[in-house]
Amino acid sequence: MSTETETTGAEVGTPPPAGWEEARSRVYAVGLSAALPAVARPLADTDGHTLAEPLTTRTDLPAFPTSSVDGWAVRGAGPWRVAGRVLAGQTASPLDEDGSTVEIATGAMVPAGTTAILRIEESTRTADGRVAGTPRSQPEWREPAEEAHLGEELVPAGTPVDPAVIGLAASCGHDTLRVRRPPRAALLVFGDELLTSGPPGAGRVRDALGPSVPGWLRRYGCQVRGGDVVGPVADTLPAHVAALRGALANADLVCTTGGTMHGPVDHLHPTLEALGADYVVNTVAVRPGFPMLLARLVDGDGRVRFVAGLPGNPQSAVVALVSLVAPLLAGLTGRPMPVLPQVTLAEPVPGRGDHTHLALARWDRVAGTAHPVRHVGSAMLRGLAGADGFAVIRPGTSGAAGDRVPLVPLPLMPGERS
């Protein structure tokens, strides 16, 4: 498990680190070029997937005039002679004569010839059995196409499918949707110094990433199963190669923790070389999290898989997730590149020279302000536990109170809206 330092960490002859914004754009583009295939799925099986094409309606919504209340569909002036009843699911016969009415249920088809609907609670019956009352001035039914017209686009491609989208799709006549499945992700934890239980001590530290990274990946829409988390992997090159080869057999994305530098037990780079991977990004000019990377492997059949190298320090690993993994997954699922909200700094935030500074902050969504938090060292998690995202301080600048800056939100659960 390597640690991040304040030096560049680059070896002689290696390219300079990618700018943070450039890295995000580059990663999104390669993800989009390798987008997961579109498949048709029954509605009940699409939650957590992503629309591969726009959701359009197969009919007008509503498809027919629909009563909004329980009451009486009347024609002409009252009192009205009762001519029958129409319930939801029935085809209504026309009201052909003035002075006639049919009892009608909420959601039922409004008969042709109806001039008003009288609410049941606002009606009375005359001695001869007719219906009397004064209908309200506003129509008590929904007109055809009031919500949408046949063929109208309701939701664009790239939208995450949640129960609201599924319900809308069903209401306008779909039985299946063309979607992209959630990417499958795996995690390899590197580091002989890691403990998986009990308190740290005697030169060994507790693994904080093995238990937590899968949760972040799930919040980005990935599938992570119990057997997809492996480690700690022994600090030898053969063990690294075997572990990564095994994880890549089923995963679209493998995240690794630690080993992203070139120390004596950092075997990730030789492992990627042994497996024939190409770098998409190799180090990013961002603090914390500088020694992050993304590599791509292409099988003989054209299948593309990715390896995201997360730094070993916990907060740096999360910076790598929001910087590289989030835009990659957006591309793989055909979702739009995440747009960063703008916030107002409530307090000053220092810059980090020619690197982008991602500063942990609490986000007051009502006021639109970002409040920096304490305990934000790259090896610390206390500040992260009380933060909502990272304020972005661009290279060569520092943030003053009142400045407007982008904010990278920490992910929500799939389908959860802020």
Quick one: CATH superfamily of the largest domain?
MoaB/Mog-like domain
Average predicted confidence as pLDDT:
91
Helical proportion, percent range:
10-25%
The computed structural class is alpha/beta
- CATH architecture field of the largest domain: 3-Layer(aba) Sandwich
Q: Tell me the number of strands.
A: 28
Query: What's the CATH topology label of the largest domain?
Result: Molybdenum Cofactor Biosythetic Enzyme, Chain A
CATH class group of the largest domain: Alpha Beta
Radius of gyration: 30 Å
Write down the overall geometry.
elongated
* Biggest sheet details: 6 strands, mixed
Number of helices: 7
Poorly predicted regions are 1-12
Region (Disordered): 1-20
Organism: Micromonospora sediminicola
Function: Catalyzes the insertion of molybdate into adenylated molybdopterin with the concomitant release of AMP.
Keywords: Magnesium, Metal-binding, Molybdenum, Molybdenum cofactor biosynthesis, Transferase
What does this structure look like?
The structure is a single chain. With 418 residues, this protein is an alpha/beta fold. The chain has four domains: 18-36 and 183-332, Molybdenum Cofactor Biosythetic Enzyme, Chain A; 42-59 and 148-180, Molybdopterin biosynthesis moea protein, domain 2 (Alpha-Beta Complex); 66-142, Beta Complex (Molybdopterin biosynthesis moeA protein, domain 3), CATH 2.170.190.11; 342-409, MoeA, C-terminal, domain IV (Beta-clip, Beta Barrel), CATH 2.40.340.10. It has helices spanning 20-33, 163-171, 209-219, 237-248, 268-274, 314-332, 382-385; strands at residues 18-19, 38-42, 50-51, 55-56, 66-67, 71-74, 81-86, 100-104, 116-119, 123-125, 131-133, 141-142, 153-155, 176-180, 185-190, 194-195, 205-206, 229-233, 253-257, 278-282, 284-287, 293-298, 304-310, 342-345, 356-364, 369-372, 389-393, 404-409. Strands 18-15-19-23-22-20 form a six-stranded mixed β-sheet, sandwiched between helices. The longest helix has 19 residues, at 314-332. Its EC number is 2.10.1.1. Belongs to the MoeA family. Residues 1-13 have a biased composition (Low complexity).
